[in-house]
Structure formats: C-alpha cells, structure tokens
Amino acid sequence: xxxxxxxxxxxxxxxxxxxxxxxxxxxxxxxxxxxxxxxxxxxxxxxxxxxxxxxxxxxxxxxxxxxxxxxxxxxxxxxxxxxxxxxxxxxxxxxxxxxxxxxxxxxxxxxxxxxxxxxxxxxxxxxxxxxxxxxxxxxxxxxxxxxxxxxxxxxxxxxxxxxxxxxxxxx
Amino acid sequence: xxxxxxxxxxxxxxxxxxxxxxxxxxxxxxxxxxxxxxxxxxxxxxxxxxxxxxxxxxxxxxxxxxxxxxxxxxxxxxxxxxxxxxxxxxxxxxxxxxxxxxxxxxxxxxxxxxxxxxxxxxxxxxxxxxxxxxxxxxxxxxxxxxxxxxxxxxxxxxxxxxxxxxxxxxxxxxxxxxxxxxxxxxxxxxxxxxxxxxxxxxxxxxxxxxxxxxxxxxxxxxxxxxxxxxxxxxxxxxxxxxxxxxxxxxxxxxxxxxxxxxxxxxxxxxxxxxxxxxxxxxxx
Lengths: 171, 284
Fold this sequence. Notes:
The complex is a heterodimer.
Chain A: H1 2-26, E1 32-33, E2 36-40, H2 43-54, H3 56-59, H4 61-75, H5 81-99, H6 105-131, H7 137-169
Antiparallel strand pairs in A: 1-2
Helix pairs in contact in A: 1-2, 1-4, 2-5, 2-6, 2-7, 4-5, 5-6, 6-7
Chain B: H1 2-17, H2 27-42, H3 46-66, H4 68-84, H5 86-121, E1 129-139, E2 147-150, E3 163-166, E4 169-177, E5 182-186, E6 193-198, E7 203-208, E8 216-218, E9 231-234, E10 246-253, E11 256-261, E12 270-277
C-alpha cells in the first residue's frame, strides 16, 4: 500500500511539467495582459524547450503534439498550427541536446533564441498565408522578446524542480 | 568544413528520428502528422468541419471547467479589492447621491417633455432586435486573436456573422459556430473591420480593430471634422449587420481618430446574440 502510494506520488511529480503544459493550453490562463498588451510571453515554448533539453522523457513528443492541438482548438487556430510550432521548438531543443556536451543556463538561453524565432515565424507564416488571420508584428515581437527574457527565471525554477524529482527518485 | 556539416546532419537526423526510452513517436512522424492535420483543416471539407465542430464543443466545455479556479481567484481578488475601497467609495457615493437627487428633478421634467413631443410627432418607437442571451465561457487572450467563446451555438439558431451586443452596444460578431458554442471576434481585434456611420452628419467609415482597447476609424470623408457629439453606429452597409446598433464615441488620440467603445469587450460575462430584427422591444 505504502509502496503504491509512493509510486503514485513519484509519478505525479514526474508528470508535473506535462500537467502544467496541458493546463496552460486548455484553461483561460492568461499570458497576455489586456491593459498592458505588449506584455505577453509564451510559457509553452519555455516549458517544452527546457524539458526536452534537460529530460525529454518527462514531456514526450506525443503529448507535446496533443497539447498543440488542444491549444489550436481553444484559440481557434487551424488544427496543427501550434502542434507544428511546438514540435519545431522540440526539434531545436533535441538538436542542441545532441550537439552539446555540457549545457549551462547561458548556452540554453542563447540557443533558445533560435527556437523562439522558428516557433513564432511558423505561427506567423501559417496564420498569414493559410488562415488569413492578420497578425500584429509588434505583438509577436514583444511576445518573442519577453519569452526570451523570462527563460532564465523559469530555467532556475525548473532546475530546482528537476533536482527535486531526481532526489525523490533516488530516495 | 565538410566535417562540421556532417556533424550538423547527424545531430539533426538523430533529433528527428531518435526516440527516447519512453517515447512512442519520433519528431519526424509527428511533424508529418501535424502537417497533414493542418492541410485537412484548411481544406474545409464538410466532414472535417463537422469533426472540428464536435471537437470544439468538447474542448470548450473542458476548458471552461478547468478555468474555474482562475475565475474563482479573480472573483476573490475583486471581492477583497471592493472591500478595501468600500469606505472611500461610500463617501464618494454620498456626494454623488446628492448630485443625482438634484438632477432627478431635471430628468423628470425632460422625460415629461420628451413624452409629450413623441406623442405630438407620433414617433415610431425604435425597434429592438430579437436576441438570445449567452454566457461567455472562455476568454483567452493571445497576441494573434482577440476572441471569446459563448455557450450558444447552431442549436440556438446562432449563425456566422451575427452581431453580438453587451448592454445593447455592439462588441463583436460571430466568426465560428459549433453545435453548442460559438466564437466571437471582438471589435478590438486586428481582424475586425466593420462599416459604421458617424452621427450627426451620417459620415461613413470603417471601424478597424488594432489589438488595442480603442479601435480606429478608417476611410473617413476628406473633410471630416471631429466633435464631441460624434457617436458611432453600425451602418449596415455590409448587408450583415443591422443599421443603428450603438458602438461608441469618436475621439482623437495620438493624431488618430479612435472610438471609445460603450461596452468594453474584454470585460463581458454575458452577451446578447442578435438573431433578427424585431418590433418586440422586450427582447432587448
């Protein structure tokens, strides 16, 4: 009984980032503030990039794909748009993971620029060319900028959480 | 040079095709799947549309339920803020009450006079619209789209393009209809363009959303002069909206003519979907 409970607790902790990713995609959780509209950031990109880079088994590509589809439904984008963007962010993270031997906050942060650029460019391209949705360039720029600026903060937070999971696993 | 290119190729190939211990699909397969779904969705096949509509209804309901803790925390915050300012507000209200009492006498006089004048010219009472009330179940902002979801869809006779009112003022239009839900594109969204008429001269213009709280008036007549009395209504020129739905007040800001909306589209909880024109004033 106590072993089962311990396993369940461990499993819940391990699924924490995945639950957060899905919750952000499906709920009314705002990452944009109406009265200061230029301030918005893409927390999904940060979560996906960090966890694919650090521990790919926590999220899983299939779940990233599903969270993208959910986000598309909630925001009324053509199905597959967010999924494609998230998967390309994962691709950059997986590439960086393969190509680098030792990663640090600084290297992660710098390479994250490429992931944001590819992710947001894809959003922008698919929306403009296929969905005929007009996009405010300035809002996309600010979104990319604040996503980049917030990365170190979430990096520290997730790093702490990752160590916490490892500690519980080895407990 | 060629070695570094090889390294890049190997790393990319490995990232695309490699599967971790717990991964069931490679990135390559999922990217292909996403592209296929995207192509199917934008092809607008009838079967895909039906599937999407069912999916939307299901996800919106789950989304509304999962958003309840966020809504609850917002309500709690508002409750505390209201209580903190209650004393200050009370003092302000007492002063306001005195002022309104004085004004009440004037209003009564004007009401009587107005009724008399209406009787004289036998003015037809302004027709209202047949509307249905709907609740906003989801309001998620994004840099790409400014829209809300309501809990009424095609089962309640909601159709594409129908105007949406809040307290009798226009706040947006229906852009997506599912069986049990619909999506409203708000007036301040970048993709919102509505033909309007500006009183008192009846000048025609296009109300264009800018992603900000105040939409902009475009294509105004060359000699248009802004005054305090410039109210903006729908013109009905597009053949979709009915004419005369109040929208807001024209004003100048940053050398542009913008419209201060009568109802803030991002602060609504309940809305009215205009189904048809009606002489039934009670429908409003």
